[in-house]
Design brief:
370 residues; alpha+beta; endopeptidase fold (from Nostoc punctiforme); six-stranded antiparallel β-sheet
Amino acid sequence: MICGRLLSIISWRSLWRSLWRSLFRAPYSFSGELPDRRLHAYRINSPHSSHSDLIDERLRSIFTDAPSYMFVAGERRSITSARVYLRRAPSFASSIDTELFYGNEVRCFASDRGWSWVQSALDGYVGYVPSDVLGELATSGGIASSMIVSVAFCLCYEAADVKSESFLELAMGSRILVDEDFYENGFLRTRLCGKWAYISERHVIASEDSVARGYNTKGDNTKGYKVRGNNKDIDFVSTAERFLGVPYLYGGGCYAGIDCSALLQTAMSLHGIDCPRDADMQEGLSGQGGVGGSLGITDSASVDRAMSDLRRGDLIFWNRHVGIMLDGEYFLHANAGFMEVSRELLSDARARIMDIEGEIRTIRRLDRIG
């Protein structure tokens, strides 16, 4: 009896929603070429019945004839989970597009039925995350500094003691606020999961906003953290090498599983080099954002010539795949062939991938690799 009434109520609500959308808000159709949905927040004629059609208000110049009620500004929020997958649709069964980490900023445009439609501030990627992983955007204020996790994963301890228990792991690229008034035994402290967490000072670098506020970055072995974008002790290739042996996971971006383009993006980002998320975006930058210029690949003969003069840090692109040269012969890539981040002879990989994705399409050389 009760179940029947509940089903009846749900059915009437679904019917009313459909009538409202059909009678008062006619479906909007866009006549031009739609922008890349991965990097532009718009939902037009959404296939998910409970999700209304919306457009990021910053896209008004593209969707000039869209009704005003469709535009939304969104709110700045922060990821409060250690890591979360950004999905293509509001369902755990939906494919993974990328991964977000603790402290990463997003812009939230809408939340409904346990899912939030967001855009990452790091690379502009758009998708869905569970609503319960979003929190208020933390600000450094005057008593805390923003730090970025700079190791594959950072352990968070119960006390400022290497023998104490760890209760959380933060992935490379996570952002935390540390208490500037605390330093003990090489540990910093931050608030996580409603309590103090202690992390090694060797596992973070200072973000730009901390430097702008005059925070100490002189390296005096107490609170002299390296600065993102000025992290010159190692090159980005060495950072990528830290992931050697990590399992391959399409859409993943950390020690638990990573794909080829996330490997490149994560390593570059830590060194202050802007890098988009997907391999096709990275391949098409054409010198923007520090990704450098093409070595002129036109056919197999030009690939042969380019391969005779490869250097550490050169980027090798196939269709939907990218690798990072370690020297003139070996390169590093997260791949489904070995199901891990592996070191491989480029000549061997070229022959193996030829039958799957075809010939190498582009080789890019960065202006700098530090």
